[in-house]
Amino acid sequence: MKIATFNIQNLFHRDRSFLEKPFNKNKKEWEMEVDQLLEKPFKSIQDNDRIRELACLVGIDKCNQLPYAVLRRKASFLFLKGKNYSKELKASELTNWNGWIALQNFPIDPKAVENKARVIADVNPDILVLQEIEDRASLDEFNNEFLPRFGCNPFEQSFVVQGNDMRGQEIGILSRNGFKIESVRNHIYDLNINKNTLFCKDLVEYKILTANGNTIWILATHLQEQTIYKEHSDTIRKVQTEKIAEVYHKLYAEDKKHIAVMGTLNTVSYCNSLAPLLQRANLKEVTKHPSFNVDYDKGKDAGYYSLGAYRLGVNIKQKDYLLLSPELFDKVKNSGLNRKGIWPDKRPMWTVYPGINCKAHSASEHPAIWVDLSW
């Protein structure tokens, strides 16, 4: 039984908020200016106008979270959407409409889409957990149309749960014949101490019946990203990992010993925010297993171990994890990491798929991590 996790960074289209911003260097100054303006007890008309201008630039204006135009899936149609446009016709020759409209998302390079499929085909798992997918319709299209191009049979079952992020950042699972998704439970309504939503994306519990009649529990998650406010990000992430650890310990105490925790934890292993999982639970990383297999860095970096990297000779910052309970870890037959779909901007360098000539062709900025269990 092979299990894999992969942050695929969307299949066909991606929210424009993830585009590289040309004004990132100015953002901190703008945020300081907003803070100063908001602290004023009395604001002039000019102050309010400036706050409105800066709100969009620093990302606190949420108007774009309810898109009035969406480019759907890879082929797509463009429609006006929203209360102010409910009676408007879509653009056509008959309407003689001439103008432009800002889209909430942008299409992913077709070469990148193929490389996403190539990574999955190379790993070829029985159970695959994906982070950052648009929706189930996109996942099913990708599964049935793109995977077969690389000799990978489509998965028989798929399931996608709508999380708390409204930018197409859902968690999904795919399984092959003989591996049945028995139940799914998410945690989008879990609250923190301030009664705010705990998970910015989600924590999903899967109960999977294996081909041999055994049961495995998978906890899939995608935690708080690291922002310029590191302490704030770490605080949020630590509360999230404490909840995941609580769920894990509850399952383990109920004699459900075969548990895997996986996903994008968004920080390196020595970060204190991951301590509830990596230090105060009995979970073990597959990257530490003797069987762990990966193409090493090229040149002298192959003998180097960067702080926060996956391991010796794999000097990319660790953000993605596949953790196993001791009972599952003892059943590991083989494990590894596929990063051939990641474009190396700078050192370290490693082998990539033929045809990846720039960052736009990358399958993702994340590797796929897998484990083969003799069970």
Which characteristics define this entry?
7 helices; exonuclease; six-stranded mixed sheet; alpha+beta; 375 residues; 23% helix; hydrolase; 17 strands; 2 domains; Deoxyribonuclease I, Chain A
Walkthrough of the structure:
The chain folds into two domains: 276 residues, Deoxyribonuclease I, Chain A (4-Layer Sandwich); 90 residues, no CATH class. It has a seven-stranded mixed sheet. The longest helix has 24 residues. Strand 13 and strand 14 form a beta hairpin. Helix 1 packs antiparallel against helix 2. With 375 residues, the protein is an alpha+beta fold. One of its GO terms (molecular function) is endonuclease activity.
The total tally of domains equals 2
Round the Cα radius of gyration to an integer and report it: 22 Å
- CATH architecture identity of the largest domain: 4-Layer Sandwich
Specify the CATH homologous superfamily of the largest domain.
Endonuclease/exonuclease/phosphatase
Number of extended strands: 17
Structural class from helices and strands?
alpha+beta
CATH class of the largest domain: Alpha Beta
Mean pLDDT across all amino acids: 89
Number of helices: 7
